[in-house]
Write a structure and sequence with these properties.
By secondary structure, this protein is mainly α. It contains twelve helices and no strands. Helices cover about 55% and strands about 0% of the residues. The radius of gyration is 18 Å and the shape is globular.
Length: about 260
Amino acid sequence: MGGFSDSGGELHDLLERLYDRYNRPDFIGDDPISVPHRYVDRADREIAGFLAATIAWGNRKAIVRNACRMMLAMDDAPADFVRHASDRELAALDSCVHRTFSGGDLRDFVLALRSLTERFGGIGAFFESRYEVTGSIPRVLADFRHEFFRCSHAPRCEKHLSSIEKGAACKRLCMYLRWMVRYDDRGVDFGEWRRIPMSALYLPLDVHTGDMGRALGLLGRRQNDWRAVEEITAALRRFDPDDPVRFDFALFGAGIDSRNA
């Protein structure tokens, strides 16, 4: 697909058709968002969503399978496990591995989540309160990483939480924020964190959304970094300033289909 001109709103029409095709519950069965959809409690969704997003690279079916194994190892009650798991129960996480994310990394992440919950009341409470103070998602992403790794942890696990201060695209964190902040009548995203406006979100940029964004003329930058995230999100805000990342599944799904064609 070559560059796309938006004369006559053709690009907007295409994005809306892709949104209607992909942003629906029957697309999420093999997507990591299906993991937090196993739960109805906000705290469970926050923990399950964060851990599923953390390992969201590689084959989607493997991501979902390994994230579900994590949930079962956490007694299928992730929020309670984070708050109360004993050393013996934490040691049982050793078998939970996804590519380079080891059982030891998972233990350190669970303990970091415990510390964050004790200090701020939960992941959502942290994100919402910090956004209300800063009014900036990039600032909140930087603050979250600092607070997350404040407790004792193995340095190797830090590679699994992207640093916006180093220019990373922070795809998994942006995806997690989309899950927790966005809401519509489609039943895909959760809309749990209403104190953060959807207009403030940034597109989760990966190889699929990046390639499709370039094909449609939404992104010129070749590197998938934070500058590219800002560029493509600004382009999408032209079509929906109140909810620009609703086109995430549209670009992602179309990108997958184009690669499989």
